[in-house]
Amino acid sequence: MERPPQRLTATPSQKGKRRCADSRRLAVLLIMTAASSYPRRVAGFGTSLTALQLYGGNYQTLHASRLAPPLLSKLSQENNKPTIINSDAGAGESEADSLLLSPLETSSISINDDGAVNHADTETRKKTMLFLLWTIAWLSALDRVAMSLALLPISQEFGYTDAVKGSISSLFSVGYGLAVLPAGLLVANASPRVVMASGLALWSVSTIATPAATSLAVENMVPLLFVRACVGAGESVILPTIQKLLQAWMRPDEKSFALAVVISGFQAGTITAYLLSPEVMQYLGGWQSLFYMYGGAGLFILVPWLIFAQDAPADNTTLVTSSEPPASPSAPWDDSIQSFRDAPWNEFARSKAVWAMGLTHCSKNWALYNALAWTPIFYSEQYGIGVRDSAWLSVLPSIAGTVGGFVSGYFADAAVRKLKAGDEVGIANIRKLFQGLSQFGPAVAYAALALHIPEEPWAAQAYLMVAFGLMSFGAAGIEVAVQEKAGKRWVGLLYSVTSLPAVMVGTLGVYVTGQVLEATSSDWGYVFGINACVNAIGATAFVTLYDSKREFE
To answer: CA 390, CA 317: separation in Å to the nearest integer?
Structure first.
């Protein structure tokens, strides 16, 4: 049986002289690389090399620095058959080394055949992953918003009341809520690339099946409710998977902007749905064509995702050599069951920050789900306009949301870069600031609409632009906060833990809105008043309870 690795200072022995010479070569190469890139920061570099680990005359584990794994991989191929595994930087790294190498974390490095560090290749792959994630976010919003627009002609054709429309819209969220916790467990153990592909295939096929299920709803609503729940179940994998992939691919000072980029895909998908859907329904065969086109687009996008997506950068590694081959991994679902048993459930329940994220997530989803499900219907019922004009009025608020996400991500990352390493209080204050703006701002806009709904639709649109634009500031608040509280193993699960009650609350919000409109003869002032209160509660919870200290590794 292989003896466990030990952290020892290298001591030459007769048997290990050649490998000690290799370590000296490595030290020289590392120092030369650092000196050429960062000549003013070389002073503390040598302390990293004290973490070289030798055991029994053979390298067992090497943690020299964040640069060491890819460089060592090139040096030691002639002597060993290395096995590459994911790992963080070595425990022997000093503060000076961290300052020296933080811009060159392994997630941003690849090595050319001649041994040169190639930043451009990894940056290209990083941008490819961001584009793929953005595209999937775009498509998911397209599929989700399609039903809110199609409900207008569907309800006219089949005579649906507001209560029935609320039930149909809420079933998406029911499927999402039932699947989001299993999705988080699966993402923790299986390939995020495969999990995302499975979800994409499920919701695309279910979207294509929606017209057939709607035609059966004349006699039985169950098929329609079932396919809408399946669309929600498929989309439940998106955000846990995004959280895990971005944690693997992005440096800490890139995360807010990266999340803003991906979340802008949801806004762009909403905008596309509002602009494109009326034209599709008019010229390509009615509301049914929406679901065929958007579901088919999902199956088309599945192909490049499977070809180009990667779970993590290939160079985010630590070298391990062993005389025994690595054990075969167990089935992902078996690992997920074990993770369910090992998960820090009690710690989740006791954490004030988790409660802060959960309450904030709930309030955010109440407003978000209502906006997605009811905004076109609000314009149609309040101002007596058709599908096309309702969709156009919904576009500008979504554009404001896209711009707000980029602005908040840029300034939040800039603020994080100015902090000292390990300044948890500073990071927490940044998250609180942006999340407070993300919910107190919309609360004010909704309260104004509750007090008086303007007589002109463009005035109501202006209030909603403010609400949507500030709501997207959550990209630099709660959306990235989960990555600061949890390590790689639990980040997807933690997001799912906060998502599960949030989805239930969002689903309830869509249903309650339908009941309120039914009971008040479509008085939208009550709806906006409730939204204002819910947003204020969530913002207060986050500002008072959240901290950014890492709790779950």
So the answer is: 51
Q: Where are the domains of the chain?
A: 14-104, 121-311+343-545
The CA-atom distances, in angstroms, between 177 and each of 146, 173, 181, 227 are: 20, 6, 8, 15
Backbone angles phi, psi at 11, to 5 degrees: -125, 115
CATH of 121-311+343-545 given 2.40.50.40, 1.20.1250.20, 1.20.1730.10, 3.20.20.70: 1.20.1250.20
Q: What is the pLDDT of residues 45-76, one digit of tens each?
A: 333 333 333 333 333 333 333 344 444 444 44
- φ, ψ at 531 (rounded to 5°): -60, -40
Q: In the 3-class helix/strand/coil scheme, how is 165-198 assigned residue by residue?
A: HHHHHHHHHHHHHHHHHHHHHHHHHCCHHHHHHH
- CA 245: distance to chain centroid? 8
Contact 66, 26 (CB under 8 A): no
Per-residue confidence (pLDDT) for residue 137, from 0 to 100? 92
Give the helix ranges, DSSP H, for 309-386. Answer: 332-342, 345-350, 352-383
The Cα-based distances of 75 to 28, 302, 460 in angstroms read 12, 38, 65
First and final C-alpha spacing in the chain = 28
Q: Which amino acid is at 314?
A: A
Residues sharing a CB contact under 8 Å with residue 540, sequence separation 6 or more, in sequence order = none
Q: What is the DSSP letter of 219?
A: T
Q: Which 3 state secondary structure label does DSSP give 118?
A: strand
Query: What local confidence, expressed as pLDDT, does residue 14 receive?
Result: 47
| pTM more than 0.70 | no
Percent of the chain at pLDDT > 90 equals: 22
* SS3 of residue 478 by DSSP: helix
Distance from C-alpha of 61 to C-alpha of 76, rounded to nearest angstrom: 12
Helix (H) or strand (E) holding 196: helix 192-216
Contact 443, 535 (CB under 8 A): yes
CB neighbourhood size of 512 (10 A): 17
